[in-house]
Design brief:
Order of helices and strands of chain A: HEEEEEEEEEEEEEEEEEEHHEEEEHE
Distance between the termini of chain B: 76 Å
Radius of gyration of chain B: 20 Å
Structural class of chain A: mainly beta
Largest sheet of chain B: 14 strands, antiparallel
Order of helices and strands of chain B: HHEEEEEEEEHEEEEEEEE
Number of strands of chain A: 23
Shape of chain B: globular
Helix content of chain A: 10-25%
Number of helices of chain B: 3
Strand content of chain B: over 45%
Oligomer: heterodimer
Shape of chain A: globular
Amino acid sequence: MNKIQHIVAVLLFVTIFWIFGSSTEASDLFRIEKNSISTYLHGNNFSDHSPVNPGNIIALDKQWADLKYNPSFSLYLGDSGYIFSSIRANTLFSDLANESLIDLEECFISLEPVSQLNIDFGKKNLLWGTAYAWNVAYPFQNKPIFQTPLPEYDLILFMQYFENESQSFSLLSFYQKEDAAIKYRFSTVDQDTEIMITLKDKLGAGLALSRSFDQFELHIEPRIQNGSREFYPHQPAPSIYTWSQTQKDAGYFIPFLIGGTYTTDNYWNILLEYFHNPLGLSQHDFDIFQNGINESSTFMLQSHLYYQFAMFRQNYLFFRSAKEDIWGMADFSVSSFLSLDDTGFMLIPEIVYPISGYWKLSCKAYLPIGSNSSEFKRLFDQYVEILSLIEF
Amino acid sequence: MKRMFVLLFLFTYLTTTFAAALPSGQEILAKVDQYRGYKRNFKMDIEVINMKNNKRKNFLAMTAYIRDPESCYLRYTNPPLEKDKMLLMAGKNTWFYNKSIRKPIRLSAKQRLFGNVSNMDVARANFSIDYTPNPKVQIDPTNHYLILELSAKSDTIAYNRILLWVDADNCQPKKAEFYTSSGKKLKSADYLSFQKVEDQIKIKKVLITDALDPNNQSAIQYSNYHRIKLPDHYFNADYLPRLK
């Protein structure tokens, strides 16, 4: 399809849902919620001589626009539950090709057989814990927040029992893999505590604490796990690079995060988090990794399979400062991920201007900064997103 | 001389009678709280309109579900960009939930809700929980209003001190001024109108004015007061993603 056909196809798709959504909104049994369209206009400098892609081995696509549509549906089953489904549709416009993608983001049935007990089955995205930028105690979703938070698995069985306003028990089981987790959560006067036992990789346990003070909130998330199934780079012989799971398959590891938020008298919200990940690549591992992607195209291609370049070093800082309604006009925030292992960082400023209750316009930049051998400068794209969002 | 004695007697009689009839600060505050909602298990719609120079800037509509004076959750209903956001307040704890974050986030007590309005302004249906009235009740020079001085019971309360004007006849709140611990005036509230709900009178409209910039104002409108049964587990932060 050419660009015009793509635009027509997407507009048709959007129009059908718009009309359908408007006509069914009044029903108690069936409801279309949160219809939104996001239009991203990208401007990036993903150059042909990227260090990730030496010699331009892979034909890198320059994406310049992205149209997103994310409707969701609820079908209510009286008071005993509901079926929920959300769809993510994308049309990407790039130099090489245009493509439309439709993906079932979530689809699950939620039942409430008795009061205080909920059972969900299907494809559902979950996050546990108290931290903002990473999920340390909950190992099933470890991508940082600025990457699309997709779950690693599809089908889950998720049960929650709410004892009262301060205690709950959760059981999570992945249908396709032998992974599972249980969680006990309780709140006291000014503290939340989550205790998690996980079976991912091997038996592990996580703890998530959040405590609030006057203008300050403190959170801590440690996890202990026995062994790791992460892949690590190896150089068994000169110019030969491989990936192996065996490097850290024994021993106990304790990744942890400590962070806090502070609200000033002028309503600036400031968030700072430190994440230590002993399962990440050491400097020695990272040197092998860098040499490997420079010298071996096979190794580089494999690295895309084993790693999603989702911050796999050992020590990071995250900073975010945000203020709403600045100058009575717009919301402003600046976030930054800093790799303490190589001092490279990603700077993400964003400004959002609400045009009306239905529209907002935002501009967001992803700016990797550091030396050419630093993780962020080497592995992440630099680009600017101009987004307009419509909700109806 | 005789006339002077008569006047002095009348003045003494009137002032002592009025003073003797004055209820205590705690009693007045309890009556004021009755205008702010029911004691337990009710919901109401709240609309906050932010204004600049008397012109409407933006608005936020929400439904408040109040179990008791210390437990409440707010579901944002309008504008569409704000839908699906929720705020839970239980005791001193406040959590925020947004579908895109996917987990409840604990907030500090002083984080702002919208415009000049703090979370406490809309979520707390009761002054008595957070403030202690000064036992000495002052009388407005016009004799129409009683003036209460309220002191925050802890540092986590949004305002350290409040001066509250109430109608001397029926204890309806008329005006309030909110101060920081350093004595700085943050904002004032004018209770503009009331409405009859069932057989009781409830607040209908409050105008909040920023003390630093009086052109910054927020109007809070309350409507659709309904009694409703709210189970305890609805006020568990883990339950926020499940609230319908």
